[in-house]
Amino acid sequence: MAKWIFLAALIGLIVGSSTTLFLKALETSMAYVQQYAYYFLLLPVALVFTWIFIQKVAPQASGHGTERIIEAVHEQEGRIDPRIAPVKLLASIITVTFGGSAGREGPAAQAGAALASAFAQLARFDPYDRKKLVICGISAGFAAVFGTPIAGAIFGVEVLVVGGLLYDVLLPSLVAGIVAYGTTSNFGIHFFRHPMELSPTLDVTLLGYAALAGVIFGIASIWLIEIVQLGHRFSARLRINPLVKAAGAGVILIVLALAFSPKYLSLGADSIDAMLGGAPASLADVVLKPVFTAITLGSGGSGGVLSPLFFLGSATGSVFAQFFQLSLPLFAALGFVAVLSGASNTPISASIMSIELFGPEIATYATTACVISFLVSGHRSIYPSQVFEMSKSASIEVEKGRVAQMLNSRAKNRYEGLRGAYYRFMGALEGTLWDRKSDKKKQR
């Protein structure tokens, strides 16, 4: 315990310091650039520069951060190129500053994990201890960006394997998350809080609406996962020069921003704050933000995926609340955490996050929405390298140890969805008819 408390505290201090530099640099650059109304007109240049910078210096820094860490833990024994830390942070600052729709948590977590891996290799730790330190880097990065040390600790041990919490890393992750959060907060990073004023007495009707909203949030999670993966697949199949591809994606984002709204660019933090404060969202918010994110990340832009995910969740909750004439701030908050639960398969850390951000009174409703969203999203994940050690339904066969990337491709086959029900029915009918024909042949 003494060994891991010391090591985890050291990782938390390192990650907290690097995250502080990243957040302050991002805040400063965004404040300077985005004071101009049409700052996003430079987005094609930013995406081209980002692609060149990553490919020339550290190709492993591509993607949305957390996914690469999960892949490194499962497939590379926690080995991460230390060059990823500065490259990922700088590339993400450029992408987000000039309007790329991406988040902050991925770069912070990946940089933290890279620094933890470098420290482990420098100290000549064995693969098991190295992986534990990398997981601490995930927890510390999450906690330092969002100001949620407990949720960050649980996220690190929950996100790697669906159906299996890594209890042996729980104490180090907790220490790393708390120290990283303390470091960033002491350096002047401010985190948003939106306490919800709810009655301490359970409202059964409200609980029912939260359960129904959980289904909608699970569907929203699927929408985000599918559109982001579609962006990656389309980009991979598009046989043109990558620089032309990145520039073209930037032009498309400019056209979409001018046609609809620039609020779908960058982090979308102001829109999230407004929705959590009671500002109504629209169906366009639910549809367009994931599209902007898919184009940004699919074209080589750098950044995380959780900020767009929080935007989508808050917007979905707001639209749901408007339809049923419910509290807009409350259901925006429920969507904020429930879409995280469904898309990343982390219902426990999402439920804890609801308490840390929105107060304890929301816990019952948020946990209900998170668990149902987790179940409805099926065997999909915004992190394709996530490993499934459980099946969410007895009617769906899932081989243990399968990564989400394989299961995502199987989600369209005959075992899931309405089309799957049709195929199962027709298969059973075909089998019955075939058995009858065989019986008749035997009788003759």
Structure write-up:
With 444 residues, this protein is mostly helical. The chain is built from 18 helices and 3 strands. Strands 1-2-3 form a 3-stranded mixed β-sheet. Helix 6 runs parallel beside helix 8. About 2% of the residues have low confidence.
How are the SSEs ordered, and which strands pair?
Blueprint: H1 2-33, H2 43-57, H3 66-75, H4 84-97, H5 105-122, H6 127-146, H7 149-158, E1 161-162, H8 170-186, H9 204-237, H10 242-259, H11 269-276, H12 283-298, H13 306-324, H14 328-344, H15 347-358, H16 363-376, E2 387-388, E3 402-403, H17 404-410, H18 417-443
Parallel strand pairs: 1-2
Antiparallel strand pairs: 2-3
Helix pairs in contact: 1-4, 1-5, 1-6, 1-8, 2-4, 2-10, 3-5, 4-5, 5-6, 6-7, 6-8, 7-8, 7-15, 9-12, 9-13, 9-14, 9-16, 11-13, 12-13, 13-14, 14-15, 14-16, 15-16
Could you list some keywords that capture this structure?
3 strands, Clc chloride channel, mainly alpha, globular, 69% helix
| Count, helices | 18
CATH fold name of the largest domain: Clc chloride channel
Indicate the proportion of strand residues: under 5%
User: Quick one: how many beta strands?
Assistant: 3
Helical/strand content category: mainly alpha
Q: Give the CA-based shape.
A: globular
Can you name the CATH architecture of the largest domain?
A: Orthogonal Bundle
Which runs of at least 5 residues are low in confidence (pLDDT < 50)? 409-416
Q: Helix and strand succession?
A: HHHHHHHEHHHHHHHHHEEHH
Question: How many independent structural domains?
Answer: 3
CATH class of the largest domain: Mainly Alpha
Note the quaternary state here.
single chain
Q: Name the average pLDDT.
A: 86
Radius of gyration: 22 Å
Give the termini distance in whole angstroms. Answer: 76 Å
What's the helical proportion of residues?
A: 55-70%
How is the biggest beta sheet arranged?
A: 3 strands, mixed
Strand order of the largest sheet: 1-2-3
The H-level CATH homologous superfamily of the largest domain, spelled out, is: Clc chloride channel
